[in-house]
Write a structure and sequence with these properties.
Blueprint lengths: L23 H33 L1 E5 L14 E5 L13 E5 L14 H14 L9 E8 L4 E4 L6 E3 L2 E2 L16 E4 L4 E5 L9 H4 L9 E2 L3 E10 L5 E2 L4 H4 L11
Antiparallel strand pairs: 1-2, 2-11, 3-4, 3-11, 4-9, 5-6, 5-8, 6-7, 9-10, 11-12
Amino acid sequence: MGQRRRPTQPQADPASGGEPASPAPRRARDGIWSVIREVLSVAAIALVISFLIKTFLAQAFWIPSGSMENTLVYGDRVIVSKVQSGPLAIDRGDIVVFEDPGDWLPPVTPPDRGPVLNPVVDALEFVGLAPTTEGNHLIKRVIGLPGDRVRCCDGEGRVTVNGQALDEDYLFPGDEPSESAFDVTVPEGRVWVMGDHRSISGDSRAHDDGSGANGSIPQDRIVGQAMALVWPLSRLDWFQTPATLSEVPSAAPVRQS
């Protein structure tokens, strides 16, 4: 018969006063690091997805003025769709965010939140987890598309588009459709925009010379269409095209001489 083997005894751990070492603490540490790695991986994936959504699909914006009251008020947050093709193409009545087409806005000094919060907020804006506070964006309502003739005012003081008078129930209470007269044809590749709070809105009217070319904005400056008001929750809303603008006839085709 072979010699009987003695059962292996766990070796003593000198640091524990001679008691056998246990693998339990190591397993616990490995488990903690595994959880941390998993959380970091999920967070990284979420940041990448948020960045891609912000870059190609949608982005949050903060309303910096009262030019769109009462539809939008100072401090509101809106979600802006960056998809501008097919059924989501920009149309009359849409509320759009666009980059300053040229000296519409005064120079803006970014708020100083301190050495700690500044990079944090910048990072959150970059990946799309915080509304952008960039000072070079405006938000207005599209009134005229390329080729449209936009005028004010008719005999009842209303704005007309291609001869169709607008009943603008979205205007700020007490505002006139326009305190200044204009008659323009929107050039190709551009749109005519106006704020809902007409008496304080520095929109296409304020920047035009009567030609329609200077006051209208290039379509390639449009960042996207505001789809929903998401903050504060008490004002949660989904934007729809006003009926009066959806009924505007298409612009008459230009006759070739």
